[in-house]
Amino acid sequence: MSDIVTSDSSRVQAWRNAKTGVLSGWVHTILRALESYGVPLERAVIESGINPDLLLNGAFRYSQSDVNRLWIYARKQAADPSFGLAVAKQVRPSSFHV
Fold first, then answer.
1. What are the pLDDT digits (tens) for 20-62?
2. pTM given for the model
């Protein structure tokens, strides 16, 4: 029974994210900026709790709480108050799935 609830809950969350979530391309952009500070992608994904398999799916959207957690992690790792500007330097058309 709990597998069914978990599966249904996952589907509901995926549906909500599809409507209101943050594009996986934008998550990639934050991760690229973090790499420019010497933080390996693999470490950043694991330590921030971002599901790496979903990064490969260009149509996926992460929940706002996932992205907030990534931003908090990135800010701490970068130790740079202007980290947001480093993210801006990494923006590409793929950041917005173009």
1. 788 888 899 999 999 999 999 999 999 999 998 888 877 788 9
2. 0.77
Burial of 63 from C-beta contacts in 10 A (0-12 / 13-18 / 19+): middle
Question: How far, CA to CA in Å, does 20 sit from each of 30, 34, 64, 84?
Answer: 18, 24, 8, 22
Amino acid at 79: A
CB distance 92 to 70 below 8 Å: no
Q: For 1-98, where are the alpha helices, taking DSSP H only?
A: 2-20, 24-35, 41-48, 52-55, 64-78, 83-89
Is residue 67 within 8 A of residue 22, CB to CB? The reply is yes
Q: Report whether 28 contacts 97 (CB < 8 A).
A: no
